[in-house]
Amino acid sequence: MAAVGTTTAGDGAHAAPGAAMIAVDIGASSGRVIVGRLGPGGAGRPGRLEMEIVHRFPNGVTEIDGTLHWDARSLQREVTDGLKAAAAVVRESGERVVSIGIDTWAVDYGLLDADGELVGPPHAYRDGRTEPVIDRVHAAIAPERLYAIGGLQFLPFNTVYQLAAEPDLAGLRALMIPDLLAYWLTGAERTEETNASTTALFDAREVAWSAEVFEAIGVPQVFADLIAPGEAYGTLLPEVAAETGLDPDVRVVAVGSHDTASAVAAVPAEDREFAYVSSGTWSLVGLELDEPVLTEASRRANFTNERGVDGTIRYLQNVGGLWLLQECTRTWAEEGRERPLADLLAAAAALPAGGPVVDANSPEFIAPGGMPARLRAAVESDGGTLAAAGAAAASADAGAVDAEQAATVRCIMDSLAAGYAASLRQASELSGKRPEVLHIVGGGSQNALLCQLTADATGLPVLAGPVEATAQGNLLVQARAAGLLTGGLAELRAAVAADPVRYEPAGS
């Protein structure tokens, strides 16, 4: 297992020595179940957070009758298997599990009937079912008013549009995906705040559901009452405890259930003058603020105000992320052109600067399938060509990577870096906050080419890491809820301030 940082132990209000926590961290393409521990402090020596991944599983969308869905029941089974594995590991070490925390992606939800049963597989945000209702929603409540209430950037898959696309919500209740998994563990129906803030049905100032928005779009308020990170949904249902081998008094604790909220909570920042990119399937690019920015200028710039841990505001934009690269490599594998990712990135790095870029956040890149062709078409529609850039790869040490692949990967990396830089410039102008350093956390922090190009594009030093920020943020909130830690975000972040890799802007 890997130690990931240090922090000060708390008063142990809920947890005895030998306490362990379980983080369930699920993204759009995979999930993990992780055991976390915080060693004892004292005598001037802080405790030390350790993590051990005990279960991994795939995730992805499934097409059913022409629409895209998540297999929530499969996720439930994988979570159960992961909890079984965690229980066995902790039992063998003589420890005791005190809590479980769950984080996933945002905006999507499951619908429950009057008996509390799931009515069908939840729709996936990449499905196009919302397109016909967007204009109808905006006719019912103007985008300006929608933003003034919730401060959420326009994305065609925001929950407000998904609910408006539902044929009939009478008698149904809705739970966001992490809340649905928590419901299956505890029987409690609650909605965690950081995920609620991604729906465009949430009042950013009042920290409450917006009756005005629900009434305007003509749907009932189907979501459960709110719960804040650190509060508990409840303890395990007897049947869940029996199946997993966990004690029935194990608490399921709300963390930053939107995975980005957990990731930002673990950004190893030493002060507040920082920017961040949570880089994974999506890239979440922004600043941490004390209050939302709900101005018309912010709306026109399409910035979002999402809640973070401890009532902070994640002022950010969604920028298309490593999804573009993931889809390209998937297509090339299907075509028999699979290449190691390290070779693809090395070939891309060998190409000269100044190649074509695309808008990585364009809706045309949301759906799966055919990504290399779509990127090529986007470049050509702007008067460029990937073929010309790719030709240079023939003279580079591209190895088995062909010219088209090298040019495509370089286009993705340049486009992401340019998107990050543009978002941060706007965020700074709109909020008045001037970051001095940029932290990249998540999977993209391992991508040296992306990190260096981002430093060059933003003019800011880039500190890369930790890779496991989301799981760490999840566990740190649990640790504080268990009384193993005390303090605010600064104290939590001290636990992961462990030697990030630094990239200086070119020419600095």
From TrEMBL:
Transmembrane helix listed as a keyword: no
Segments forming domain Carbohydrate kinase FGGY C-terminal: 275-482
ATP-binding in keyword set: yes
Annotated Pfam families: FGGY_C, FGGY_N
Superkingdom: Bacteria
Segments passing through the bilayer: none
InterPro entries, sorted: ATPase_NBD (IPR043129), FGGY_C (IPR018485), FGGY_N (IPR018484), Rhamnulokinase (IPR013449)
Domain Carbohydrate kinase FGGY N-terminal stretches: 21-264
Stated family: Belongs to the FGGY kinase family.
Name by which UniProt lists this protein: Rhamnulokinase family protein
Native source species: Zhihengliuella alba
